[in-house]
Amino acid sequence: MDTLRIDKDTRLLVLTGAGVSAESGIPTFRGGNGLWENHPVEQVASPEGFRRDASRVWRFYSQRRAGAAPCEPNPGHLAMAEWERKLGDRFLLATQNVDGLHRVAGNQRMVELHGNLFTTRCSRCTREPFEDRLAYPDGTVPLCGECGGMLRPHIVWFGEVLDERNLLRVGEFLERKDTRLVFLAVGTSGAVYPAAGFVQAARERRGETWLVNADPADNTLLFHHFVRGRSGEVLPALVTID
Ligand code: BV8
Ligand code: ZN
After folding, report:
1. pLDDT of residue 81
2. Most exposed: 21, 92, 179, 191, by fewest CB within 10 Å?
3. Cα of 191 to ligand 1 centre, how many Å?
4. The CATH number of the domain where 212 resides is what?
5. Predicted TM-score of the model (pTM)
């Protein structure tokens, strides 16, 4: 298998998707027993779906909270935490995952592009999003203690814009001139934008691009290197850091 070399003049941007949590027991979205199979995505992961049936949305997210709560980071997560320890500010992780496992594994230089499963916010007032590990039974819709509005998962749904600060952080990392860029996408089908567009942005900055994925992704052809395999097995051996 090829190895991805990181020397003193190199910075590493990593993008992860649901595939890196599959080996921790968290179902992915679009493969086999995908999450979206029994939940049409627009009904459970869109503002319209929430307006139409907030109870169904809370059943979906409560089920995912309960499913993800006992899960542990796998060797793929741990490898990425190790890279951050060795690279410091020459490392940034952008994750599409909402399960929080990268933080449990030890990553801190990271942005959660699509939000976090264990954080709740009010759909009406501007109170701060807060940690909430509750799985609301039988589709109860929790209400805000301050304004009485419906609470919602702090997740970016389809048709909703991503947090500008997160995109800025990725953009600044891509724009740096002090080191050469390596971009590594892991466990993502490359189907959802703007994350699926990062590889193109990396190529426009003459970045070396790698994909580690169990199957070809929608944008595989945009990667200079494609290592087919399970992230928990591939990542620990893939990267050597000088
Ligand atoms: C936005 C929250 C501005 C839900 C999610 C047409 C063209 C371009 C863009 C659009 C378009 N039409 C609409 C859009 C915009 C839309 C979009 O991209 N749609 C797609 C479907 C075409 N994007 C948006 O709406 C974004 N907002 O752009 O705002 C705007 C506004 C209005 C209109 C236009 C633009 C918001 C995107 C965020 C949506 N929210 N999640 C939730 O998580 O509960 S996205 C959802 O998909 C998840 O967050 C997930 O992270 C994400 C991506 O999925 P993956 O992580 O890749 O997971 P997947 O299952 O697909 O793939 C797993 C892969 O792992 C597989 O390839 C498998 O082979 C591999 N694998 C499995 N096991 C392993 C493995 N690999 C390695 N090891 C293993 N063991
Ligand atoms: Zn409120």
Report:
1. 98
2. 191
3. 5
4. 3.40.50.1220
5. 0.96
